[in-house]
């Protein structure tokens, strides 16, 4: 049984590659360890600029080395008998399907695309203080599509009402577009623990489906 000494250990995300090293999704650390333990996946580890592959047993041994020489560079899970580093990337050994190319049109991705900022006043808000606004109102044919939905604070949304931005004397901070890749991935890449993902995320066919 795996337990966490550090609250962040099981909260970490792990990039999943198919057997051809194409990124397919992001999962939690607990799910990643389950795949490794059942020999359905292997660890792909970036070390001094090169990538190395480890099965679960070998990764346990490598973790002991990392524990002794670079403990601050890892997130850790503790078992009854030893500590194990949370892998950043795993590769599925028997899965060869291609990643999905469609970015999901949902509230979470819209908020992330717009960086939790009102697209009229430019100020940043918590998700509870933001709403979604139809740039071209539904009452005059505006559709719920990437190019017509933006984040708006309550004040700006009320001010705009059922009008177009031009009619309301308002301007969009950024023209809304459909992201080429899942906007949430940029959040992860901003953290040092996920820098090893970059090579795989830059793949031309990459799009990621989050858990």
* Overall number of strands: 10
- The count of domains is 2
> What structural class do helix, strand and pairing data support?
alpha+beta
Strand line-up of the largest beta sheet: 4-3-7-1-2-10
Q: Low-confidence stretches at least 5 residues in length (pLDDT < 50)?
A: 1-7, 204-211
As a percent range, the share of helical residues equals 10-25%
Order of helices and strands: EEHEEHEEEHEEHHHHE
Largest sheet: 6 strands, mixed
The radius of gyration computed from the alpha-carbon positions, rounded to a whole number of angstroms, is 21 Å
Mean pLDDT score = 84
The tally of helices reads: 7
Which word captures the global form?
elongated
Q: What is the terminal-to-terminal distance?
A: 23 Å
């Amino acid at each position: 049984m795996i337990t966490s000494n550090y609250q962040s250990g099981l909260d970490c995300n792990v990039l999943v590659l198919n057997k051809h090293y194409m990124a397919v999704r992001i999962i939690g650390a607990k799910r990643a360890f389950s795949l490794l333990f059942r020999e359905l996946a292997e660890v792909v580890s970036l070390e001094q600029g090169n990538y190395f592959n480890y099965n679960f047993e070998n990764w346990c041994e490598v973790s002991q080395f990392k524990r002794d020489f670079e403990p601050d560079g890892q997130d850790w899970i503790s078992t009854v008998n030893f500590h194990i580093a949370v892998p950043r990337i795993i590769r599925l050994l028997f899965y060869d399907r291609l990643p999905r190319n469609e970015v999901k049109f949902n509230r979470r991705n819209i908020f992330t695309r717009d960086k939790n900022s009102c697209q009229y006043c430019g100020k940043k808000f918590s998700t509870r203080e933001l709403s979604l606004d139809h740039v071209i109102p539904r009452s005059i044919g505006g559709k719920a599509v990437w190019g017509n939905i933006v984040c708006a604070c309550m004040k700006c949304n009320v001010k705009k009402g059922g009008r177009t931005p031009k009619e309301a004397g308002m301007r969009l901070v950024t023209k809304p577009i459909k992201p080429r890749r899942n906007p949430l991935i940029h959040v992860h890449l901003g953290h040092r623990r996920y820098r090893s993902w970059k090579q795989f995320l830059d793949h031309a066919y990459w799009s990621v489906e989050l858990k």
